Amino acid sequence: MPNQTVMEINKLNVALSNLDKVFYTASNFTKAQVIDYYIRIAPVLLPHLTGRPLTLKRYPNGATAKFFYQKECPSFRPNWLSTVPVWSESKKRSINFCLAQDLPSLIWAVNLAAIELHTSLSRSEDILRPTMLVFDLDPGHPATIVHCAEVALTLHRILLESNLKSFPKTSGSKGIQVYIPLNTRTITYTQTKEFAHTLAKILEQQNPSLVVSKMKKDLRKGKIFIDWSQNDDHKTTVCVYSLRAKKYPTVSTPVTWEEVEAAYLQQAPDLLSFTTDQVLERVQTMGDLFAPVLELQQTLPNLKIKKMV
Which of 153, 186, 173, 130 is nearest to 258 (CA)? Predict the structure, then answer.
């Protein structure tokens, strides 16, 4: 293989290739820098990957070129890399997903040009039991992440009224995602999807000029679509601390509710956009803001639209 080198990580040899290839042309950010970022962010990233089937979003020719999703872990994987079979109802067979549970496995996957890492909301040991619920706030042009911040703050307030703690992160692209940790063995995707859908409809009723809960794309112009449908066992969301394949090497970054509010009050979208160096600095000073999502146990209340509106 051209331009190949071998890196020893935790006493395992990981083959790396084409390290000088530019993955982000606008900033001349190379594959070597992508790998370096993932090595440095690994201490906080790996706990969020452990035990979760990993879908690789691969960009062989860089972030702005064509990509493909890979669920089936490649047959040429090293024998030390763990996989997990997950039944696919649509394919009527199990798919063997990669598990990135340690640094060698993570870097091996990233070397496949998996710029983005997408994970299940549940762990492989109990794939039909989500450990968290997500609201994916997606702005329809000309709406921006500042409008997402407004909707996220309303969502946060309603959740607090139900005694639910929630944790925001940027999508690393143009939106915001709000997570509710659950971490119980009794919750199902049917329950989380119904809860998310009901709350999306509540916000839509409260502010129909800004919020849409329906799936049709032609309804989203200038509004924030609350994607409740992500709460499904066969779907994945971008993992916290994952790079995104955009013009610059932006990262899906955990933020505080104070930061979300500041971006909204100042109408400043740049306050909710972070590149690799910024994220590494934030972790150095703030730690893992998403750590509670791993362990905090919460139960969902019954929502009734009439009671909330």
Answer: 153
> Counting Cβ atoms within 10 Å, is residue 22 exposed (0-12), middle (13-18) or buried (19+)?
middle
What angle is formed at CA 127 by the lines to CA 237 and CA 226, rounded to 5 degrees?
Answer: 30
- Distance, in Å, from the CA atom of 280 to the CA atom of 272, rounded to the nearest integer, reads 15
Distance CA(35)–CA(113), nearest Å, equals 9
Span between the terminal Cα atoms of the chain, in Å = 61
H/E stretch holding 135 reads strand 132-139
The overall longest dimension of the chain from CA atoms, in Å, is 63
pTM above 0.85, yes or no: yes
Domain 132-294: give its CATH architecture: 2-Layer Sandwich (3.30)
Q: Which residue bears the tokens 């839509």?
A: 204
- Tens of pLDDT along 251-262? 999 999 999 999
Helices in the chain by DSSP H: which ranges?
31-49, 103-111, 145-161, 189-206, 257-266, 276-286, 292-295, 305-308
Q: Which residue has the tokens 């024998």?
A: 79
Q: Which of 104, 107, 126, 115 is nearest to 53 (CA)?
A: 126
3-state SS string for 58-111: ECCCCCCCCCEEECCCCCCCCCCCCEEEEEECCCCEEEEEECCCCHHHHHHHHH
Domain ranges of the chain: 4-119, 132-294
User: Is 199 in contact with 137 (CB distance < 8 Å)?
Assistant: no
pLDDT digits (tens, 9 = 90+) for 173-217: 999 999 999 999 899 999 999 999 999 999 999 999 999 999 888
- For domain 4-119, say whether CATH 3.90.920.10 is its number: yes
Q: Which residues, listed in sequence order, are joined to residue 181 by a DSSP beta bridge?
A: 132
Q: Does 4-119 match 132-294 in CATH topology? A: no
- The C-alpha angle with vertex 79 and arms to 42 and 82, in degrees rounded to 5, equals 50
